[in-house]
Each structure stands twice: as C-alpha cells, then as structure tokens.
Write a structure and sequence with these properties.
- The protein has 10 helices and 19 strands.
- With about 400 residues, the protein is an alpha/beta fold.
- It folds into 2 domains: about 1-130, 3-Layer(aba) Sandwich (Rossmann fold); about 135-380, Dihydrodipicolinate Reductase, domain 2 (2-Layer Sandwich).
- It has a 9-stranded mixed sheet with strand order 18-15-14-13-7-12-11-8-19. It has a 6-stranded parallel sheet with strand order 3-2-1-4-5-6, sandwiched between helices.
- Helix 4 runs parallel beside helix 5 (about 110-125) and helix 6 runs parallel beside helix 8.
C-alpha cells in the first residue's frame, strides 16, 4: 500500500473533518491502494497548531504554508483555510507537483477558480474539492434514481439552505472564528458559503445551470471587526434568493439565509419530473423521499393504486456507500461524508483517474455564484457561462 503524506492547512472546523477522514478512510475502505499519513499541520497560531497536531497525531507543524509546499516529504496539500488564501496555495502546490484538495468554495471568484484549474491541469496532479454532500448516501441515491430514469423529464428544482447564527447585531466580523462575515476574506456571504453547496448538488443531479436572476440582502450593514476593534461596513450577503434555468429546460428556485430563526443547517432540495420526484433534508439525512408516478409491471409503466410518496431509509447494503458502514437500520453522520469523498478520490487517483468534483467542476459552480451576485447588482437575467 502506497503512503500519501498529507500536509493540512488549517485547524478549524474543516481541518477537524478532513483529519478525521484521513485517519479513518482505510479502516472502512480497506481495499484502497493508498494510505494517508498525517505528516504536517500548518497554521499561523503555534500554540493552537501544536494542540491540534497533538490531538490528531500529526508528525510535525509548520507556521507558513510556503514551507509546507516546499517540503519533499509532503505529497498532498489540503487547503482548509479561509477562501482568500486558496488560490496562491493551490497554484504553488500544483507547481510543486503536489496533489491538491481544497475546501469549498474553490476561490473568491471564477477568475481565481480558472487560474487554479489551469494550474492543477497543467501540472497533471490529482485534485478534488470537498463538496461532501454528494457523498451523503441519500443524495447519492437520488442521483442513482435520476440516472435510472425514475424521475423522467425534469421540470422543477427547488433548494433551500437556511441557518440563523448571524441574526444578532452584536456578532462581530472577521478574525479566526468569523472570517466568513468579512468580504475581503470570504469573497461573499451565503452565496459562496451555503448556496455553493446547493448549486453543486443541483448541477450534479440536474445538469448545468445556464441563466439566473437574483436578489441579495445584507440585514446588518455594520459590524465590529474582531481584529481591529473598529466598526466596519459589512460587504457580504446575509440572504440570497434566485431563479434559475437549467440546460435541460427545468426551472429552479434557490433560497439561502443566515437569518432563518430556528434553522441550524437546513439544506433541502426537491426535483420534480414527469415520472417521479425526489426530496431531501440534511437535518434528517438518513431518509430520501421518493414519489413514483408510474409502476413497472410486465415490462410496462402503468399507474398503480399505491402511487404515493415513500420514505426510504437509506441504510441498506445496496444503498450508496452503506456496505462500508454498519448493519441496515443504523445511520451514519456528517463526518462520514468526508470519508466517503476521500475514498472515492483515493480510489480514482490510484488508477490514474479523476473523481468529481474536481477543480474544473467546482469552477463551474463558481461561475454560477458569480452570475448570481452580478444579477443581484444589475437586476437582470444573467448568463452563467457554465460548460455544457
């Protein structure tokens, strides 16, 4: 088994999720030809880096990502730091011949994403973006149902991603914990942070989004910056809603906010087609709701007296990924989606293949995010420029 020596940049929420995946992936996917090794943790705060590295058993720490990229004993760079650092790290890592995996959104905007995509493709290095919700078994099952033709010609796609953690006006912006509220570090608000997930899932299930028209809102326009202590204008979007048209003719509605009181991580979608519908809610992730309009009988599709919504408990061995986990009826959680994603990446890379979503795929999602923000400013339908 080949060792893959990992250099992790960042010790926050995503650093923890990724580190757990590297440590567990071979336990649950024992047939992999590659074994990740936690070689180095890179972060600016030496004390916190030391604590994190000790908890997760990293062999060493670095304070500067440039030194990490230069190290000969590092094979893969994992970018789990704030968005404004993604581009420079990814390009440098690719030029150094490292494998590169990156948290979402891929970049601050599509221009940066294009540069990053070109860098990894010119270098010919394996790359992936951690859109981990594709690896929720119920969402993967939804993709399977679409591929099997059970939904039929698609008509409507609707998605919501709702949270409530920034409602209070005294919540500051910036710094290590609240950089997502600082436009110079995050690039955008809910559009890049939350809707990027919704857009990625939508295009994975229903194909390219070609046009959008959007509105955004910033409810609290000034916040104290954690690092400077000064009151500064808020540049990110607190809420976003947009209409979309898909290349296949379907209509889409998307809504995201951090001001939905009581919603913690309410990520849902519903796809309606001529032959059926699928519906999913991340706060109840072990279930996929499926409506089958026509039943298969004697080789023909016919209406059935039991037509109706069914709630599928996605824990059986025949369901995506579940043969790697527990017995039927036992669920898996958020952290397992990163393990599933990493397993797919390592399996493909070992055979010289790519896995989705790679940088080019995430670049397309970035294009939609940019079009949404542009439309919110100009008030017009805007083409996304997504590859068809």
């Amino acid at each position: 088994m080949k060792e893959l020596r990992v250099g992790m940049i960042g010790y926050g929420f995503m650093g923890k999720a990724h580190s757990n995946a590297y440590r567990k992936v071979n336990n649950f996917f024992p047939g992999l030809k590659i074994r990740p090794v936690l070689a180095a943790l890179c972060a600016r705060n030496p004390q916190k880096a030391e604590e994190f590295a000790g908890t997760w058993c990293y062999e060493s720490i670095e304070s500067h990502w440039e030194k990490l990229v230069e190290r000969d004993d590092i094979d893969l760079i994992d970018i789990g730091c704030p968005n404004h650092l993604h581009k420079d790290i990814a390009i440098a890592a690719a030029k150094a011949g490292k494998w590169v995996v990156c948290e979402k959104p891929l970049a601050m905007d599509s221009a940066e994403a294009e540069e990053m995509t070109k860098a990894v493709e010119d270098a010919g290095v394996p790359n992936m973006v951690w859109f981990n919700y594709r690896r929720v078994p119920a969402i993967a099952l939804a993709r399977q149902l679409v591929d099997e033709g059970r939904v039929g010609k698609p008509y409507h796609y609707r998605a919501t991603y709702l949270q409530d953690w920034t409602i209070a006006e005294d919540v500051p912006q910036g710094g290590a914990t609240l950089w997502r509220l600082d436009v110079d570090v995050a690039g955008s608000g809910v559009t890049g942070d939350l809707l990027a997930h919704s857009i990625d899932t939508a295009m994975w299930l229903n194909g390219p989004i070609t046009r959008v028209v959007a509105e955004t809102e910033t409810f609290v326009t000034e916040r104290v910056h954690q690092e400077t202590g000064k009151v500064q204008a808020v540049g990110i979007d607190d809420a976003c809603m947009f209409l979309a048209r898909f290349a296949n003719g379907a209509m889409g509605t998307f809504e995201s906010t951090r001001y939905a009181r009581g919603r913690k991580n309410y990520n849902t979608f519903e796809l309606n087609g001529a032959d059926g519908s699928v519906r999913f809610d991340l706060e109840d992730p072990q279930y996929l709701d499926f409506f089958e309009y026509m039943q298969q009988q004697s080789g023909k599709k016919v209406e059935d007296h039991l037509t109706g919504w069914r709630k599928v408990h996605v824990t059986n061995f025949e369901h995506p990924y579940m043969d790697r986990w527990w017995v039927p009826g036992c669920t898996i959680g958020y952290e397992h989606t990163f393990i599933n994603a990493l397993a797919d990446f390592l399996e493909a890379a070992a055979d010289g293949k790519s896995t989705q979503p790679d940088f080019r795929n995430a670049w397309q999602t970035q294009k939609v995010c940019d079009a949404v923000l542009a439309s919110a400013k100009n008030g017009q339908w805007t083409d996304t420029g997504v590859e068809l």
